[in-house]
Amino acid sequence: MTQVIESDICIIGSGITAALLAEKxxxxxDVSIVVVEAGNDNPPLAERFAMRARYRSYGESxxxxxxxxxxxxxxxxxxxxxxxxxxMHWGGVTPRFSPxxxxxxxxxxxxxxxxxxxxxxxxxxQEAEERMGVAGAQGPAxxxxxxxxxxxxxxxxxxxxxxxxxxxxxxxxxxxxxxxxKNSVPYRGRSVCCRNDTCFPICPVGAKYSPDFTWDALRASxxxxxxxxxxxxxxxxxxxxxxxxxAVAVNRDAPNEPVEFRAGTFVVAGGYTWSPHLLLLSASPRxxxxxxxxxxxVGRFMTGHRNVQAFIKLPMKLYPGINFQxxxxxxxxxxxxxxxxxxRHDLRVWESTFGAEARLQNDDGEILLGDAVLDDWRAxxxxxxxxxxxxxxxxxxxxxxxxxxxxxxTPWGDPLPKIAFRDxxxxxxxxGHTEDTIRALFxxxxxxxxxxxxxxxxxxxxxxxxxxxxxxxxxxxxxCDSFGRTHDHENLFVVxxxxxxxxxxxxxxxxxxxxxxxAATAIGEG
Amino acid sequence: xxxxxxxxxxKAAAALPIAVSAVGVEGFARSxxxxxxxxxxxxxxxxxxxxxxxxxGADGMVRAITQFQRWLREYTPGAERLHGxxxxxxxxxxxxxxxxxxxxxxALETQARTRASAAFVELDVAARQDxxxxxxxxxxxxxxxxxxxxxxxxxxxxxxxxxxxxxxNLCYRAPIDPFACRPLADAPNEPAPRR
Lengths: 526, 195
Prior knowledge:
Helix content of chain B: 40-55%
Strand content of chain A: 15-25%
Shape of chain A: globular
Structural class of chain A: alpha+beta
CATH architecture of chain A: 3-Layer(bba) Sandwich
Strand content of chain B: under 5%
Oligomer: heterodimer
Order of helices and strands of chain A: EHEHHHHEHEEEEHEEEHEEEHEEEH
Number of strands of chain B: 0
């Protein structure tokens, strides 16, 4: 017998965008909300010290079984699929995109503009920062525009970062404390960061925001019904209509008993892979290429950013371990002004132990034991090491895709997703120039501190992936509008990462959430 | 001793001095104030004396070895490991190294008897280090591995110790206490030098 669960709004996926969207909807609308999550619930806060201890000692996952067996794809960024999603073990870093990220075509003649501006999103950035609790410094106004202060004072720069900030200033680069969803003061009933430095993958004290806090509060208040271990496999249209009527799902604990979610409005919040995957799986005679896909752009324009990083030895005494995961940031290179050739990136600096860890063999190949290990280690820590890293945006090709892989199936028989990122022609042509420009900057930084570059590397994979259901004003070239409402189905929304036009050059989570909160103003209205 | 395979236990115990074998490995360890655990304690202590820094002092050395024994006793093979960003692969912790590490200890004892006609524990530190150097000479040692991934017990012990906050504090002669809960407001302060 089919189980039917009805609501005004059905949200598919329970990651960070879904959590804060559901919270806002529960406040703004007198509606019933059901959230469907394929993964498991997560352990309570009280268990996280013990889970962290096992992680620290043995590398064990502090979130075991945070994935669904059989739901994966080659080159997927993470298997994480649980209540709270990947943000259960995010690092809590919350930079905003810069105004230029939304207008790269207009300003630089590359890529595509977004159908909204930074100013349109600014209030929702602020709301996202307030809902999750962000501690941040105000950077120079010309580099770090915002209409209201950060909700919490910045995490203090530790002894190491203060010295590295001075080094950056000597190179003409203003750095400030990286904004983070970590409490610098008690916030919304959660405690203050105590620098125990496992923000990624687990904060044992609840100082870092994670979506479980929101879900726990919403469930306790009875405002939201969260259905776990249930995978939505298909969205089905109402007969003779373009409205979505049903989300058909499988209960992993009772796979032979179908579940149907019926709602007035559906919100797909499954992230960059599983959102387009669900739309593609939902093909019907009327929409043979998938739901919301009359433009043929579902699963296209997958985007993100790559990075170039270096470790720089500096003649200054540092003490690695005061606060490993906190960093300096600058947006100087995200807001470069006029350019002969396009290159934009962020820049961050961390303390590091690179090249100065304990070892048992010195550069001459001699084996070190006893006091010799400590002597060798101490000698190599007389100077400090900085890790510098720049994310640069990769403008997506139309054929940067998530498609259905008919050769590989889920345990329930559906094709798995197949991911294939591809740079646009412009971005591919600019890659060498971009990476050379960043390396030259690293050299300049090293010289400014009388330092030495130990090593540099450039990533091949795209971090903080997004896209696949890009937003736009033109229904012929996009899946949804700037509020996430799909052009083809007035009661179907897509929110968060999949709707991004480009991946920007900074972590995307805050932007994904801000877009979701903006979408909430249109979801369920009237 | 629960993880100690009988074959390995017999091999290790046989290599110990007669007086030790007579009272049993754990009994001797307790009487000597040494750390008990899945690895032969007297031999492990003798290894620790040879490879850990003297600045630790006797108490610090026992603490380092005790922590290593406890770490090994509580190890769980086949547990799901953290899957980081950029990969969909789910990996598990490897096999329990206790058996092969006890074999390593027994082999050190055998080498001591072959080279010096004496028990390993009776050798001075320099002689023990010579034997250990020969045992780990083929390993890649310019970076310490995860302890559980160490081929040889000596590398396992050192990899474990040098990942601890105690080791960082010792190296920097300052109470950095990495990964401990510490007041946020203290972060800007230079860690006070400690002698």
